[in-house]
Amino acid sequence: MPRVSERAFIAETIAIGSELLVGGRSDSNSLFIADQLGESGIEVRFKSIVGDYRPDIVTAIQTAARRAGIIVMTGGLGPTIDDCTREAVAEITGRRLNRRKTAFEGMAARLAQWGRTPNKGQLRQALIPSGAVVLPNSVGSAPGFALSWKQALVMALPGVPREMEVMMVQEVIPFLTKRFRGLATLPRQPIRRSVFHAWGLSEADIDTKLHGLIARGTPVDLGLLASPMGVLVSLTTKLHHSVGRTVIESLEQEVRSRLGEWIFAEGQDTMEAVVGRLLSKQALTVALAESCTGGLIGHRLTQVPGSSAYVDRGAICYSNRAKTDMLGVPAELIARHGAVSREVAAAMARGIRERSGVSIGLSVTGIAGPGGATETKPVGLIYVGLNGGVGESLSKEFRFHGDRSMIKQRSSQAALDFLRRWLIDREIE
Amino acid sequence: MPRVSERAFIAETIAIGSELLVGGRSDSNSLFIADQLGESGIEVRFKSIVGDYRPDIVTAIQTAARRAGIIVMTGGLGPTIDDCTREAVAEITGRRLNRRKTAFEGMAARLAQWGRTPNKGQLRQALIPSGAVVLPNSVGSAPGFALSWKQALVMALPGVPREMEVMMVQEVIPFLTKRFRGLATLPRQPIRRSVFHAWGLSEADIDTKLHGLIARGTPVDLGLLASPMGVLVSLTTKLHHSVGRTVIESLEQEVRSRLGEWIFAEGQDTMEAVVGRLLSKQALTVALAESCTGGLIGHRLTQVPGSSAYVDRGAICYSNRAKTDMLGVPAELIARHGAVSREVAAAMARGIRERSGVSIGLSVTGIAGPGGATETKPVGLIYVGLNGGVGESLSKEFRFHGDRSMIKQRSSQAALDFLRRWLIDREIE
After folding, report:
1. Looking at residue A258, what is its pLDDT?
2. Is-contact A203 A230, C-beta < 8 A?
3. Among A18, A297, A312, beta carbon nearest to B319
4. CB-based contact (8 Å) between A309 and chain B?
5. Which pTM was predicted?
6. Averaged pLDDT score across all residues of chain B
7. Nearest C-alpha of chain B: how many angstroms from A316?
8. A313 — contact with chain B (CB < 8 Å)?
């Protein structure tokens, strides 16, 4: 167990809801809470998830209070009978639940905006443990609350993401700031997390390239996380350690320098946004010719607001005939080399560029599996083609493993990265 | 704390990884684990998440062992230095870590398939606590293990979702089945969870339609969970309650009857798979004309293995010129009604069908936002068109809210559901 003084700034989240246990959906609320708290210098070290079952909520609060000074609960404050967070907190802390005037009035006012009056279930939402501070909910009907118990500060928020998010920003963070202002006994500082997204290197390759990056004793963690979209590299400062801004910045620079163009994005940035900015900056337009990715590249590029300025069109040419009809790929070229070949990828890229009149044609053809492999062409064999209007199309072969969905993801990433590198080279020239 | 006999069948998951705490990604592994265990009659009641920090992993294991009989850990078995699940388990259970021959050989064989030999980090992956059973990993390099400690069975699996999933099915479930065969002291029965996916009705509409479904005292929970893809309706039996199969089946029938064709899929089934089966059964082919969805419909349909049998092609016609070039939509039609109009949606569907020679043309045009709205055409206005070769195109207007990504998702769902209902009607006729 951590020491008390340290524990005050260790946080635990408890997400409550049976749908978070089985077959429903994963808890993303706690990620938002951890980010918000981290920026205030409070480290979420533990996350717990329990169902809408009062004894389990009680156990979770007990456990959290042993190891964390700040406990943020989400969920179980709704109007239905299975919502029992209020009751669990009252039980373990020995407080009574009373209908609190401020809680009731806030809720009634909110419902009145929607032309409704509180029903019996909603009236329960105004019940607050005695001595707790009410945390108003400006976007939904359930107020939250905060109370001190043992050495922990226990806070309860609704589980609806939008409500929880607004309350974290408008209520919880100001509340904590006020509460801890006089308590500056620890050299608290925000947890800083720098994230880099790399593509084209394995986790092991990156591990080798970053060997010895962080000197022994520097309280910064290096994290590597592989996914079909590449490897996420993170540098995270440890709380309660003094790490100068320059130390972090020089580590960031070192990561950039060691990984170079393998890094395609940083922080919240995405491959599709990066490619979009490069296209915009160079005033170029793109058209796609997708076979095995089936539209995924188009979908990704058009996730970016404003992408209609540089995405002109795409041809999802799943059948061979579609490759001929839509892109003018000669049927005999397909017959000679097969639809999954460097030659066809190149012809697809040229075809879509010429037919659409854009600056760049980008193509992908491959075998996403599980069927479709031949003796010489395994599942995961992918060709990317790029035609920029000058000279022949460029093309590149990739061999991926994984299931159909992973191969589609990797293929889309490979194609976008190929375009990204081409755009960067063009910029430099 | 639960009684021992009961505790044997209570499970806790522990997901390990600093990226699961701050700003990274939510833990979805534990959902898969809970579903798998639930089908075997083992209830996941608690989920914990900790970072790659040995003392916190130790605390999490201690806590879990107090309240659960089965502990499934994921993550922290990788080759890098921050992976310390093995060491944490060894520490708390007082076992030594030894390089286990079976673990090493399995890993070496796996790497050899990829033409590699184990590096120093990967050699660490063959370290297994003494007395533990090795759980082979047939898709990745890190083996897992299982051991008994106090009254709990502690299992460690890799955090890579694909590896964890294969190991749950191939190793963990058979291991548990074997282990508990002689232990039928509890009236264990699988937690049964029936899931229905509905589109086109709000959560409130469904709540009303399902009012009074479950009689008081029946130990079955009704859950509703809204997302941009529709509403997930679930019926979940509570463990340790006797619920006859007929009770569940009649509740399922009642849900089907009350929600009718609003239900597009059940269980793990998806809209794209349902549409694919309907197309296959009727030996029909489809071609897409996507504007605001940017390829998402094509991507979704081609996620289904074997979809090349019925997906011929798609035109991502983001620009107006692309609508004219690729689909033959008259420029004056676009000028008169606007690209986002019922008329253009209908012309797009006919255009792609006629040009591709498929059975059905399916189109979407709309304003995904945040830009692009006009006085009469708000963000979220979507038209779907369908042309089946006989008569005029059908079309339908939708008005969605949400951000760009949600509107794209909803639009793709609306288009696929429109096609699904058309295929069902055609089947009936």
Report:
1. 98
2. no
3. A312
4. no
5. 0.83
6. 90
7. 5
8. yes
The pairing of beta strand B133-135 with beta strand B127-129: unpaired
| pLDDT value of residue A136 | 93
Please state which CATH number belongs to domain A4-180.
3.40.980.10
Lowest mean pLDDT among A355-364, B235-244, B322-331: B235-244
Residue B188: the pLDDT is: 54
Mean pLDDT of A221-238: 86
Q: Is A11 helix (H, G, I), strand (E, B) or coil?
A: strand
**Collapsing DSSP states into helix, strand and coil, what is residue A227?**
strand
Q: pLDDT tens digit string along B365-389? A: 999 999 989 989 999 999 999 999 9
- For the segment(s) A193-266, the CATH number from 3.30.70.2860, 3.90.1150.10, 3.40.630.30, 2.160.10.10 is 3.30.70.2860
pLDDT at A74 over 90: yes
Q: What are phi and psi of A224, to 5 degrees?
A: -125, 135
Q: Do B295 and A317 touch (CB under 8 A)?
A: no
Q: What is the CATH number of domain A271-428?
A: 3.90.950.20
Judge if ipTM > 0.90. Answer: no
Is the pLDDT assigned to residue A203 strictly greater than 80? yes
pLDDT at A112 > cutoff 80: yes
Indicate the residue of A46, A226, A402 with minimum beta-carbon distance to B56: A46
B155 with B135: CB under 8 angstroms? yes
What is the tally of helices (H) and strands (E) in chain B?
16, 17
d(CA A75, CA B287): 44
C-alpha closest to that of B97 among B134, B139, B66: B134
Within 115-174 of A, beta carbons closer than 8 Å to B belong to none
The answer to whether residue A270 neighbours chain B at the CB level (below 8 Å) is no
Measured in whole angstroms, the distance separating CA A107 from the mean position of its chain's CA atoms is 32
Tell me the pLDDT tens digit for each residue of A17-67: 888 888 667 888 999 999 889 888 788 999 999 998 899 999 999 999 999
Q: Give helix B54-67 / helix A54-67 axis angle, nearest 10°.
A: 150
Q: Residue A120: pLDDT above 80?
A: no
Q: How far is A211 from chain B (nearest CA, A)?
A: 10
Average pLDDT over residues B163-178: 92
A421: Cβ contacts below 8 Å, ≥ 6 apart? A261
Give me the sheet containing B263-266, strands edge to edge: B220-227, B230-237, B193-198, B263-266
Contact B26 A23 (CB under 8 A): no
- For A19, residues 6+ apart whose C-beta sits below 8 A from its C-beta are A25, B223, B225, B234
Of the candidates B18, B60, B370, which has its C-beta nearest A236's C-beta? Answer: B18
Chain A residues with CB-CB distance to B226 below 8 A: none
> Number of helices (H) and strands (E), helices first, in chain A?
16, 17
Q: Which residues of A touch B107 (CB under 8 A)?
A: none
CB B239 within 8 A of CB B191: yes
DSSP-assigned states of every residue in A22-72:
TTS----HHHHHHHHHHHTT-EEEEEEEE-S-HHHHHHHHHHHHHH-SEEE
Domain coordinates of chain A in residue numbers?
Answer: 4-180, 193-266, 271-428
Rg (CA), chain B: 26
Interface test with B, best of A10, A35, A319 (most B CBs within 10 A): A319
- Per DSSP, the three-state class of A147 is strand
- B146: tokens are 């299982």
Query: Do B308 and A63 lie within an 8 Å CB cutoff?
Result: no
> With a CB-CB cutoff of 8 Å, which residues 333-392 of chain A face chain B?
355-356, 368-372
For residues A140 and B10, the model is more confident at B10
Which of A28, A313, A408 is the closest to B318 by Cβ? Answer: A313
User: How far from B314 is each of A285, A298, B325, CA to CA, in Å?
Assistant: 20, 11, 14
